[in-house]
Amino acid sequence: MRKVLVLGVMVAGIALMLWAGWHNLRERKLAMQQARDRQVTLIPDKASAEQPEDEIPQMRGKKAPGFTLTTLEGKKVSLADYKGRPVLVNFWATWCGPCKVEMPWFEQFRKQYAGQGFEILGLTDDFDAGKDVISKVAGKTGVTYPILLTDGKVQKLYGGLEVLPMSFYVDRNGVIVEQTAGLGSKDMIEANIKRTIASGATQAGGM
Amino acid sequence: MRSLLLAAALCSAATFTVAQSGSIDGVPAKAKQYISFVGEPQAVPAGKKSTVDFTFKVSEGYHTNSHTPKSELLIPTNITLKPAQGVTASPAVYPAGTSYSFSFEPNEKLDVYTGTFTIKVPVVAAAGTHTLEGTLHYQACDNAACYPPKTLPVSIAVTAK
Which residues have CB under 8 Å from A16's CB, separation 6+? Predict the structure, then answer.
């Protein structure tokens, strides 16, 4: 009789714990869903929670890979042309909504920090879109900085680009100071630009 | 009594693990694909018009453009099937998308698939078992980023009787 009682208590206990575990999981999922529904803030410096940062190759602190690409006007542009200047290398695409939101901000900051040598290079990650379409979309965002057509190789050099927009803040020494994936807030972008300008400022002109 | 405590402790640990991992619904924690194919073998009447359903699940937190996005700049979801001996397939019928706007562009309405969606392919199949193979081409985004276009292989067994 005692054994049956012990067995009964065990079964009831296990059932209770399983229920508690399931209930806990369900509650957490509901809470996560509610939090996600409420989320309207822009993600500052990484992709969404579903895209863990460790999936994106980290290039902070590394030398920015060099490239030579062609602008929409057919002019050859190399990253090396901007040696000694802070540069924002921004990958975008015509089909990427979040990319087009931050481009006018970039344009504004480019003008604001031009006196400190700051420049932006917009690299298109479009495979199918023609030059005319890219030009039209870029024009609609109001940007006047160089828009470069990519060759498929530069994306690989910068980690494969599994997320857009993707930005690399390159200081005067050619080192990537910050790397962001996904749309950041305007304040965060400006903070990154300021940090990039400040980085290596003492060695400015020493490259 | 000791065995009772041990059993309870083991059970508690197992329950905690399941609760913390949050993987019982099969949603991939990280995936390069943002859509999974959930097609199951299907039976159709031999020699008669019928449809084969290709069902997909968009990963939680993501959306993909529908077959008819509202801008020509956006990449539509498209299924392409290889010719299969004994099966004549007609153009796929896509579901309508749902309206979606990014929080940062509330006035820009997009037409997207989220959750589960099914593409119906009209077929006439000869008696026997056939395999329909192809690819789904799509481009996904979440609430703050977009991901390069992807191609997802699909394969489904169709038995015509």
Answer: none
